[in-house]
Amino acid sequence: MFRYKLAAVAAATAVTAGLGLAGAGAANAQSIGEHKAKPSATVKRASYNYAHLAIRSVGGGNYSVTISGHATLTSVTPRNFSISLYSDDTWFDENLFDKNWMTTFPNGDFWTQFTIDGDTLDEDWGQDEVYARAHIWDPALGSFQLTTNVVTGSF
Ligand SMILES: [Ca+2]
Ligand SMILES: [Ca+2]
């Protein structure tokens, strides 16, 4: 009973505001509503996206490659995450390796690890520069890419 009365009062107030101060009343109601609908945690989560590449020798001319990061997503769908490794070069960044159809964690974090031979990473005479891109899919945002740091080595 009490709730019904409150709702009726609120509705009457909204109508009065709408009739009396159409512009200001509507704007105030909207900004208050938005403030309540977006807790600060959501805003913080939206403020960072990143991808990180690490490469370490595991012996026998092989290397362990790890790509990790975070993507701010509206929702997580299966197979929403792929990666590509590239050589960092002056004229043409060659695609060295792909790993497709992985899925991010529910919070948008992602992580993948694989072992690759040094010949694949040996993209230059002398020193090699390798980076990765994470390809992310979101049903509302579409597809986007996050580029990692460049790892330098003699692979
Ligand atoms: Ca290079
Ligand atoms: Ca090389």
TrEMBL record:
Keywords: Signal. Residues 1-29 form the signal peptide. The keyword Signal applies. It comes from the Bacteria. This is PLAT domain-containing protein. It comes from Motilibacter deserti.
